[in-house]
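Thread: Modeling a multi-component assembly for a lab meeting

Hi all, long-time lurker, first post. My supervisor asked me to bring a structural picture of a complex we are working on to next week's group meeting, and I have zero experience with this. I have the sequence lines for every component (284 residues in total). Could someone generate the structure of the whole assembly? Inputs are pasted exactly as I received them:
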Amino acid sequence: MERKLHTKETCKQSVTEITDALYVLNGKWKLPLIVSLTNGPKRFNEIQRELKNITPKVLSKELRELEQNEFVIRKVFDTVPVSVTYELTEYSKCLDDIIEALRAFGQQHRERIIGKNKSSSVHEHAAELPEPEYADELEVLK
Amino acid sequence: MERKLHTKETCKQSVTEITDALYVLNGKWKLPLIVSLTNGPKRFNEIQRELKNITPKVLSKELRELEQNEFVIRKVFDTVPVSVTYELTEYSKCLDDIIEALRAFGQQHRERIIGKNKSSSVHEHAAELPEPEYADELEVLK
DNA sequence: CATAGTAGTATCCTGTTGTATACTGCAATT
DNA sequence: AATTGCAGTATACAACAGGATACTACTATG
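Re: Modeling a multi-component assembly
Sure thing. I ran the full set together rather than chain by chain. Output:
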């Protein structure tokens, strides 16, 4: 149960650092958006198709914010009509560890949930820890 | 500019995995809350004091959600009056990589912003990439 | 000629998140 | 005897994120 961070001071400092990080990456879309750009530049509608359920308004806003934080660069080509691409910057590479950790957790957590649901007849800890309704809590689970 | 994930398929799958992960960890408080519990069990008011600005209503809700996802366990001691502690579960360890990555990024990003603000007289890329108002964008920066 | 695609913007609306304030009932402290 | 701390709940409200739908002006395709 012991972790690397265990003094009161490093712990408080970590809370601040995490808060800073989340301030920049918050919301439902920023990280998925960055991931969807990892295999090269994409155009607006292309992204919208890939990130099922994102509306143009929200996508537009998220892209603007990522641009301001220098994770994404917007390139306009003066074709007729204009075409616009979005691509990741060099700086965005500093997010790779976060993305990889989230990805690994997401994958493992989904498997855990599926396993849980299969053996859901066993309720030994039901009183202390209510059996979560995982099926409703993860959206896709195809 | 090449990363590990670069085929269309692995990229789409990663988006799903990230979405799953964020589904469980979303919001402003869950990760900071978990971090604040890394140096041992804490009581309700103790947490509230440590996480400046969280209201009891929100804290209560966040703790309930973390409990349902089995990251936190709530222990009630029948002292008079009852005392309650919250502590991290074994399973919560699977979040350590995420937390460490976010922490490292948060720390480095804050330093980058401070550096940017010092040399803010240089505006060579102002037209393409508006100089972000970092001072307003990070909340603490004491 | 109608449809589809381009890169978004404009409005309106809902739902969650967060804030503010007050309150509980009991015990220990001042 | 009054205040403080405990672990929250209750109520009302404000703010913001996000969703639904429609629309622009232009071009290419069927």
